[in-house]
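2 proteins. here.
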Amino acid sequence: MKAIALINSTSGGVQKIGAEQIRLDIEHALRAQSIDFDIMEGGYQTLNDAVSNARDIDLVICAAGDGTQAALASLLTNRKSALLPLPCGTVNMFCRDLGIPLDLPDALAASLAGEFVKVDIGAIGERVFLSNVVFGAYADLAEAREGLRDAETIADVSFSIVEAADAILHADPVRYRAVIDGQKLSIHTNTIMVSNNAITHAENLVPGRASLSEGQLCIYLTDALHGGDFTTVLAGFIGGGADASDKIERRDCKSITLTATSDELAYTIDGDPIKARGSITATIKPKALTVLWPSKAATTAL
């Protein structure tokens, strides 16, 4: 087996653990398995170029957060190379759903002893999402979180905290035109979530999915018109009670197109905040990505 290991030096988890320690852990684990490998460290573009130019690679190991792992997964769609994500981000939703331990040496040991499994991906144009896309107020909150992570001074920290509070306080609704599997809807809300497969539970305040291969998007339409509603909806997701909430309606589909009447869409792709104009279409691509899945997780979750 030939592998390339990529370390995103800008990831919050990488900065916390230390890129050099992560490199040592990866080297130790791969040598123990007699795997031929290269290791590269850098920002997103460096890692993106490394995957784009890689040839005859069986395994791409990505030490990064959910957003970077999703972006690199877009380059691995329908390719023979498999993805092994390592929990080096803020939330690590994809790693959690794969049953990968959050301790790095344990994550490597469990995954390398696992098996290759095909999972679904969501797509918006060329961009892949492994977990979810969230439209509305959460995008402003995620942008404030990014600012807090990159803060270098007390003033920066204070500004980011104020931004986060403002995002919740002024979680104003947006009017959307939606088309869900051909059905047209008008929606007035501050939060819409598009999930790659259904959210079924939560663990340590992180929403989770029992399956990654049902071949469907799950759209969570919320009755959220202000900051109080937003926090109630958020509590429903992180508490694992989204399906039971009277403020959240779930619809399963293959595609959704959203247009904001304000002409600007604010959303996150696996936690990365984005703003764009025009319409956005999300689709499901069943079993389009191969991952290295820890054996125990594969027998219980798929």
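next one coming up
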Amino acid sequence: MKIWHQSFTDLNEFPLYRETLQSHANAVAGSDVSVVVHGLRPGTYPPATAPMDVNSRAGLRIFNAQQVCEAAVAAQAAGYDAFALGCFFDPALHEARSLVDIPVVSLTETCMLTACSLGRKFAVISLTDFQKMLTEDLANQYGLTSRLAGVVAMSPAVKLYDLEGSGAVIDSIKQRFIASCQEALWLGAEVIIPGDGVLNEFLVRHKMLSVDGAVIMDALGVLFHHAAFFARARASGCLDVSRRLLYAKPTGPMLGHARQFTGAFQRGEQEFSGGAALRD
């Protein structure tokens, strides 16, 4: 089984994250599952600009969301069995599901639904106030507000590039994360979700996946297993996505017109960062 992981970062710009992500996937996915990590196209973000700084502007985020749709189409064309969207914004989740037959799963939806089976209430730890806002909106969209103890933004906010740093900055991030977890526990959380993919891999590297008896979810590990579960279930005929309303598929002529008019949905795997681009 092959799973296409899709980050909302340019993985060529985050080498430590990319390497941790791939080794993490190799370790947790199982011998019968191959996870290949991908990012957005190289050069998507301006030099020395963190993805969060761009994606906190909705008018720019929409262009990167289109890349997610194109990646899902490329994944299916390349023979992948599932598409795992590794961004807590869940960008273009509905749109990508409508375009392909393979299962499409995403971080926030996957982790929140899984957390409901692990404890009465869950909390999410975000890097910034903007992430906190979007996470609260997604919990409401998914109908899970009553299970959400709260979203705690780390203070002061964490810069994405600092998660690949060393020395004193690492110690500071650890302390801020633990303090945020303690606040989440005070709010009543039994399960804590690291609300950022780069943060999750930071915690995996530093073996920080428990606090005071509460579970700190390995969000990306759960995502890989969730993708594999849906791929197996679909292959065995147990389930498939509904095409009645929300995820109605475009017809062939509709998709063909979109390709011709916009130039979209024509990118191959090698055009995305990470993955095949690094193997070639």
